[in-house]
Amino acid sequence: MPDKDKIAITLDHGAGGKLAHQLTTELLLPLFDNPLLAQLHDGAVFETDQGRLAFSTDTFVVDPLFFPGGSIGELAVNGTVNDLAMCGALPRYLSMGLIVEEGLPMADLRRVLEQARAAMDLAGVQLITGDTKVVPRGAADKLFINTAGIGVVPPGIRIGGDGARPGDRILLSGTMADHGIAVLTQREQMAFQSDVRSDTAPLNAMAQAVLAAAPGVRVLRDPTRGGVGTALNEIAVQSAVGMTIQEALLPVDPAVAGICDLLGFDPLYLANEGKMLCCAPAQQAEAALAAMQASPYGRRAAIIGEVTAQEPGRVVMATRIGGRRIVDMLTGEQLPRIC
Amino acid sequence: MDDVTFTEAFRDPAIARGLVRDIQRAADRPMRLMEVCGTHTMAIFRHGIRDLLPPAITLLSGPGCPVCVTDTLDINGFIALSQREEVIVATFGDLLRVPGSFTSLRREAAEGADVRVVYSAMDAVTLARQHPDRTVVFLGVGFETTTPTVAAAILTARDLGLTNFCVYSAHKVVPPALEALMQAPDTRIDGFLLPGHVSVIIGTEAYRPFFERFGLPCVVAGFEPLDILAAIGDLARQIADGRPALTNAYRRAVGDAGNPRARQVMAQVFAPCDTRWRGLGTIPASGLAIRDEFAAFDATRRFKIAVVEMPEPKGCLCGPVLTGARVPTDCALFGKRCTPTDPVGPCMVSSEGSCAAFYRFQR
Ligand code: SF4
């Protein structure tokens, strides 16, 4: 087996699955260890004299920059807004750092920024600081964007990955894998034609609506890289609970399902950029569902399963035909199969 | 494809329950059934089909994952090619993580090799047109389903007059492997679930000689849960009645004669050759070599690829796992030293490999 320090970083380390998880827990956490970081949530929540704040950052690299349903500009805004929203926070201010490759058409940069601005308006946040670096051709791929954001956590709200309890219902706010497939089909234009659009959207209003309707909700998470499967595993591990989800209840767009079948992909592991998972106490599940469905981004929300006391850390799926199987964390990037 | 009601029709729980009851009735003795196709393996695990079957039925995953059966020699050859300055390696994604004797394509890519994931051989031709100053080598791995598309890509490259495109052919064909399986040590198989996609091309009749020689129940099956359950039921009944047959449970896609046009394209470019399978050794006429006429498109003739013979990873049971003699959990490394994150053998790498499927869905 290779010596861990001799191996180079591979793309698998960035794919939001097991290796990414290892990178975090084995390299980053030991180096920077502190109780706030150790929450391992989408963002960190900390106390100040004026109340609790949530702070989060995310970096966006996407090829192509523009894809059906969005662009890197919207992603960069919604990504950080959603990380804050998943802490139960009201997102307020963003920073934005741009790394631009020499040669990027000015028109592309303008379009990206205009779309970022529109996304900020929609989410109700403001850009209050920023930075731009230009690097020589080849030193970056067109445009990388980092955003960080600050939000205010209303009193009484405590959200974390460790709050799921046996008996809770698991809710998903809409169809899985739309973003993953939209970007993939756009990138691989040669092979596919499809009209699947990215689901990129701000989730802060929906998250607040869910918390208002179902105050017992303790877990919110947006299943981005690594998909719903990986996000559920993280919650199951952090909360030390089991989970059972029902295949028949999982919302998937038919076109997305078709492309996944063709490529041997599992929609459970493909990225979403405008969906949230939530664990709600059984008596409040319907209220939480109604709150999701009332949002323009949650019309196809569904209760997809249940938190159990069995096999802590394990997510199991009851399949449509009545079988059972494990839903593991994604290991590395999903790769199209050979048939 | 994008009609969900069509797909859902093949996942109907009530019909599934009926089919499971049929299987339970027929399975009056221990039956060892082998699915010879990685896509079947995946589908069986993904839909939780093993969970529905009576204990009398054991499903074995055969040598049907193209990545898993690719010999280490070939994997080392792929890697050696990727290390050449002038080469762009174009490959299907699942090959990236397969460990060769020393490294993998993915690690080579991290070290600077130009390795690109493509979705079809035709994408590799496009890549060659976009990079006239480099040589694009497509890694040809796969069974009869993939090979016609690779043959078509070579024909296209020839028609375009491309001189910077070639293929490393490690393609394999299914029927000779079935015969080899029957002769593998410790293998006991009572019936075969034959691969649907491959059969679309070669047709049911391609298995006739094998069936006549061994007289074992053989059913061509599709990939939806109901397809698979129906085929298992058919196999179980044949075994229980002592009346083996070669049947087709995937009529909506597979005909007796397959797709003659695809086979003709394949035969135009490729000729049968002996080839090495991981786990099964050399099987006569089970590989496909690029014909002399197309030598210019044959990577193994264009490049001198020096590869050394290396032993299989120590303790890895991939060989006997691929022949159904052992199951992944028999391997002492399974889930301990060998996981999908840090695979020892190829069966843990490919998403369609039996060890990976066991690990992901059934621990
Ligand atoms: S578990 Fe790993 S080492 Fe063991 S047979 Fe499977 S691939 Fe080989």
Structure notes:
The complex is a heterodimer of chains A (339) and B (363). Chain A contains eight helices and 14 strands. Chain A is an alpha+beta fold. Chain A folds into two domains: 43-153, 60s Ribosomal Protein L30, Chain: A, CATH 3.30.1330.10; 169-327, Phosphoribosyl-aminoimidazole Synthetase, Chain A, domain 2 (Alpha-Beta Complex). In chain A, the strands form three sheets. Chain A has a seven-stranded mixed β-sheet, sandwiched between helices. Chain A has a five-stranded mixed β-sheet with strand order 1-2-7-5-6, covered by helices on one side. A two-stranded antiparallel ribbon of chain A has the order 3-4. In chain A, helix 5 packs antiparallel against helix 8 (285-294). The radius of gyration of chain A is 19 Å and the shape is globular. The model of chain A has no long low-confidence stretch (mean pLDDT 89). Chain B has 363 residues and is of the alpha/beta class. Chain B has three domains: 13-60 and 188-248, HypD, alpha/beta domain 1 (Rossmann fold); 67-173 and 258-302, Rossmann fold, CATH 3.40.50.11740; 318-361, no CATH class. Chain B is 39% helix and 16% strand. Chain B has 16 helices and eleven strands. Chain B has a five-stranded parallel β-sheet with strand order 2-1-7-8-9. A four-stranded parallel β-sheet of chain B has the order 4-3-5-6, with helices on both faces. In chain B, strands 10-11 form a two-stranded antiparallel sheet. In chain B, helix 3 (38-46) packs parallel to helix 16. Chain B starts with a helix and ends with a helix. The relative contact order of chain B is 0.17. The model of chain B has no long low-confidence stretch (mean pLDDT 90). The chains are: A alpha+beta (339), B alpha/beta (363). The interface between A and B is large, with 44 and 63 residues. Iron/sulfur cluster binds at residues 316-318, 321, 328, 331, 333-334, 338, 344-345, 347-348, 355 of chain B.
